[in-house]
TrEMBL record:
Keywords: Membrane, Transmembrane, Transmembrane helix. It is found in: Membrane. The gene is LOC108253627. PANTHER family: NATRIURETIC PEPTIDE RECEPTOR 3-RELATED (PTHR44755), RECEPTOR LIGAND BINDING REGION DOMAIN-CONTAINING PROTEIN (PTHR44755:SF8). This is Receptor-type guanylate cyclase Gyc76C-like.
Length: 408
């Protein structure tokens, strides 16, 4: 709901009279396809829905810019069209179909095959999983640009020749963690991470981090997890017992989870006096972008107004590994929020009445970038007088190519 507008934006810009495709008499069409017949939507599917609520507007934003008179496609007489739940046979259109998967791999695989039968030109996605879908895209000889999935296997172009991504792979996060530990010559750590069905991505990232640490000679002495999101101050702190089980044997802790879960670990260690002599330290891994608008939130619990004084003292013994904030990102999030409320998504912002916007996840930017990368590849291919149905030609425009992301 919070990123879908990005594809509408990208398509509208690409299809504008002076846009990337519009200026050439072509258009790019989007089709939003819904799946039904599931008896229940799981917790994980609910989490997937919230992601859509917070990033979908990014695709509308990208489309509108690309199709504008001075846009990538609009300036060339071409356009990118966003069509909801319908396909059209215009021989000059390139069709995108937005298909729901609810974050479930089986449904995602089925949708990948279904979309192939509808003669799509490219896949933007899928969301949570992409390994099997990427292999299918290669077999179908269709471009697949992932804006969300971090499966590291897809980086092997021998098996995934038509796959590209705008979101950094999890191996990049893992290498950053290893670099911090090696810089301080910390060779033995305890590793804590969130292991919950509704946040399955953390399990994948945890496996990657452990593998990379071991490959560079860092010993992971303890591996422990908690099985549900923890909000500090509202439930029993799961880290108290984890620390009691490990502190006598290790001094450096690595935690992978939400920022408010890091807070629980830091407060527990501070209250146990482990930071008093500077003998313990924590490296926190957060996959969410740093919130430069509200840095104090990292020192307070959920729904609290003031920083926790215990946390303020504890965070002197903490280093965070997380994506940095981009300049101008606030303007982008405002636009994505706007497009999320527009057709075809029509995702209402429940915070609008109090003058607030939904928090837009970084994946909205990756989705926005994916649409632009595909549009740019189309233009480059057409200008070289090559067929836009030539997947090899399209993919050559992706690999070893530098681009300016909306994130900077």
């Amino acid at each position: 709901l919070t990123i879908s507008g990005a594809i509408s934006l990208a398509v509208s810009e690409i299809n504008a009279p002076d846009g990337l495709l519009g200026s050439r008499g072509h258009s790019l069409s989007f089709i939003v396809a819904e799946t039904y017949g599931e008896e229940a939507i799981s917790i994980r599917q609910t989490a997937s829905l919230w992601t859509r609520l917070t990033i979908s507007g990014a695709i509308s934003l990208a489309v509108s810019e690309i199709n504008a008179p001075d846009g990538l496609l609009g300036s060339r007489g071409h356009s990118l069209t966003f069509i909801v739940a319908e396909t059209y046979g215009d021989s000059h259109s390139l069709t995108f179909i937005v298909a729901e998967t609810y974050g479930e791999e089986a449904i995602s695989i089925k949708q990948t095959a279904s979309l192939w039968t509808r003669n799509v030109s490219a896949y933007i996605g899928p969301q949570e999983t992409c390994t099997h879908e990427g292999r299918m895209a290669a077999a179908f000889d269709i471009v697949m640009i992932s804006y969300f999935c971090t499966d590291y296997e897809t980086s092997d172009k021998t098996f995934f020749p038509t796959f590209a991504r705008t979101r950094p792979p999890i191996s990049q996060i893992s290498k950053s963690v290893a670099a911090v530990l090696l810089a301080f010559q910390w060779s033995q750590v305890a590793f804590f991470y969130l292991n919950s069905p509704e946040y399955a991505e953390f399990g994948k990232i945890a496996s990657s981090i452990i593998g990379v640490l071991e490959s560079v000679g860092i010993l992971v002495t303890f591996r422990k997890w908690w099985d549900a999101p923890y909000h500090h101050g509202y439930s029993d702190n799961p880290f108290v017992q984890m620390i009691r089980d490990t502190y006598a044997h290790v001094r450096i802790y690595v935690i992978l989870g939400h920022y408010y879960e890091h807070l629980g670990l830091m407060v527990a260690m501070e209250e146990m006096g482990l930071f008093d002599k500077g003998e313990y330290f924590v490296v926190g891994v957060d996959i969410e972008q740093y919130d430069s608008r509200d840095p104090e939130k990292y020192l307070r619990g959920m729904l609290l107004d003031n920083p926790d004084p215990v946390a303020q003292a504890a965070y002197r013994s903490y280093i965070g590994v997380l994506p940095s904030a981009a300049r101008g990102y606030e303007n982008f999030t405002e636009q994505v929020n706007y497009y999320c409320e527009q057709p075809p998504f029509n995702f209402v912002n429940p915070l609008k009445d109090i003058g607030a916007n939904k928090i837009i996840r970084p994946e909205a930017a990756y989705l926005y970038d994916a649409v632009y990368l595909y549009a740019n590849a189309l233009v480059s291919t057409m200008e070289a007088n090559e067929s836009t149905s030539n997947t090899t030609a399209i993919m050559q425009r992706f690999f070893r190519t530098h681009y300016h992301s909306i994130l900077g």
